[in-house]
Write a structure and sequence with these properties.
Layout: H1 16-21, E1 30-32, H2 39-47, E2 53-56, H3 60-71, H4 73-88, H5 92-104, H6 110-123, H7 152-162, E3 165-168, H8 172-176, E4 184-187, H9 210-225, E5 229-235, H10 238-243, E6 248-257, E7 265-274, H11 276-282
The chain binds S-adenosylmethionine.
S-adenosylmethionine (SAM) is lined by residues 8, 10-12, 33-34, 36-40, 57-59, 171-172, 188-190, 208.
């Protein structure tokens, strides 16, 4: 069973089953335009092995990493083994120096870039993926005693899950044009911040502000018109519920850490929006 090999902000490991439970029994291809760490995609592969999947994330280095894992599995594992052996063989100061040297490096080949991304993700502070204005990964070194840089069994399981997948790095609007009637799409955009009281002042540091949320709702309506099943997750913000008011909007409780040490947990609802109600109304009359 494959599980995400990257820690990714907004990872949906806890929501994956709830998402897949709401999918129709039969559908054509599976599309995931906001792939991130792929928690739902990898779970999907267990439930529907061998299905055609089209996965996408605008982050080009991330999409390239999935393609390298699929097409050059052994080369990638060798690169990671060498990074892992070097890092784990050092003392604390040596590990930090090696981390910053890898962070500063710019590998010229896809396998080198993919190994760098996985290595940094496993050894950086909190497993964050953060890029500064000039597009450089700038997270400091983490403090894991024995980080699992090379989890060969899981990486091979992920490569198998990716074997029949198309991987692209487009904007979600372009990625969704590939969906055909009868296909199914799961949309997991960067969440609209709950702390925002007005959609006009929406925080857009992640590059995904209110205009993108509106554009996404238009894509959701377009998928529905074209007879494509669509399921979307987002924060339980009234402005988001209002964007999708003609669809099935459900609040799902999600347990999450509510302080920085992660020792206090609370249940914060998230939204799942499905177009199944509208699609059912569009079905041709059997008579
Ligand atoms: C909430 S995360 C997805 C998390 C994923 N479901 C998981 O389980 O890890 C949203 C993703 O959307 C990507 N993204 C942001 N803007 C995008 C856009 N305009 N088109 C496609 N992908 C985008 C980000 O790179 C990020 O990986």
């Amino acid at each position: 069973m494959a599980t995400p090999f990257l820690k990714w902000a907004g990872g949906k490991a806890k929501l994956a089953q709830a998402v897949l439970d709401r999918f129709p029994r039969d559908f054509g291809a599976y599309h995931e335009p906001f792939l991130g760490g792929g928690a739902v995609f990898f779970r999907f592969g267990d439930v529907h092995p061998g299905s055609q999947a089209r996965i996408n994330d605008q982050n080009e280095t991330l999409a390239e990493t999935y393609r390298v894992l699929r097409d050059q599995t052994d080369t990638l594992l060798d690169r990671l083994r060498s990074l892992s052996d070097h890092y784990l063989g050092e003392d604390a100061a040596g590990r930090a120096a090696f981390y910053y040297a890898v962070r500063a490096s710019e590998p010229a080949d896809p396998a080198g870039r993919a190994a760098r991304l996985i290595f940094l993700n496993r050894t950086c502070y909190n497993g964050l993926h953060r890029i500064n204005r000039s597009g450089r990964f700038n997270v400091p070194h983490g403090r894991y005693l024995r980080p699992r840089i090379l989890d060969e069994d899981n990486l091979r399981a992920c490569a198998a899950a990716l074997a029949s997948a198309d991987v692209s790095s487009l904007d979600f609007g372009a990625a969704c044009t590939a969906a055909a009637p009868g296909d199914a799409v799961y949309l997991d955009p960067p969440y609209f911040p709950l702390s925002t009281t007005s959609r006009f002042t929406a925080y857009t540091a992640n590059g995904f502000g209110w205009p993108e949320q509106e554009r996404l709702a238009a894509v959701f309506r377009d998928l529905t018109r074209r007879g494509v099943f669509a399921l979307l997750s987002n924060s339980a913000h009234p402005a988001i519920s209002a964007l999708y008011e003609s669809f099935e909007v459900e609040e799902v409780p999600m347990s999450r850490a509510i302080n920085s040490r992660g020792d206090r947990r609370d249940s914060i609802p998230e939204l799942l929006v499905s177009n199944a109600n509208v699609l059912a109304g569009q079905l041709p009359n059997p008579s």
